[in-house]
Design goal:
Layout: E1 2-7, H1 17-26, E2 31-36, H2 43-51, E3 54-58, H3 66-82, E4 87-91, E5 107-111, H4 118-122, H5 130-152, E6 156-159, H6 162-172, E7 177-178, H7 186-190
Parallel strand pairs: 1-2, 1-4, 2-3, 4-5, 5-6, 6-7
């Protein structure tokens, strides 16, 4: 099977470790192409992936501006449309995810969970000021909307655990299956 995997980054020091492990395991019996933003790409890791016969496509626009994200989304959609992949495995957020919307290729999204209250957790561990509280509520709404779109507009959505499966049902009213994420492989473990 020819499988396209979309991820935010080719790097083991980010949330992209899981799709890279998936790619490595699927490459044993399938043809795999990984599509990713170019920023934070680990060139040594790309070399390792290519030695495993995993083709890596970095999108052309490096800057993370909204305009370049839109350009990368359009570029990814074009690349996927012109590919001969049988299925797309999505591990990304909008706008990259939107590249799959108008394809006639089945898309499977992986639901990792919804992280809310980012401001309080990351930047303001004490009580939020009224303006930061409002910003937190707006950000939570945007995060929930992004996840709703991903969970509800794919051919299939798979949760990474029983907990995330229940969370998807509670938050987005979507019953989905779960497949536990595997452990880290020896190749990527050596790259840490």
């Amino acid at each position: 099977m020819n499988i396209a995997i979309i991820t935010q980054s080719i790097n083991t020091h980010s949330g992209s470790r899981a799709p890279l492990e998936l790619a490595k395991n699927l490459a044993k019996n399938n043809q795999i192409t990984i599509y990713s933003y170019p920023h934070k790409a680990d060139k040594n890791l790309i070399s390792i992936l290519e030695k495993l016969k995993i083709y890596v496509v970095l999108l052309p626009h490096n800057n993370q501006s909204i305009i370049n994200q839109i350009k990368n989304t359009l570029e990814l959609s074009k690349k996927l449309r012109n590919s001969d992949c049988d299925i797309v495995s999505s591990h990304c957020l909008p706008p990259l995810f939107m590249a799959t919307w108008f394809l006639k290729i089945p898309t499977v999204a992986t639901y990792y969970g919804t992280q809310k209250n980012v401001l309080k957790e990351k930047f303001f561990p004490e009580k939020l000021s009224p303006i930061n509280y409002l910003a937190e509520k707006i950000l939570n709404l945007v995060i929930s909307l992004e996840q709703w779109i991903i969970v509800n507009t794919t051919s299939k959505t798979i949760a990474i655990s029983q907990h995330s499966k229940k969370e998807a049902h509670k938050l987005y009213h979507r019953k989905i299956n779960h497949i536990y994420l595997g452990s880290i492989s020896k190749n990527l473990k050596n790259e840490q």
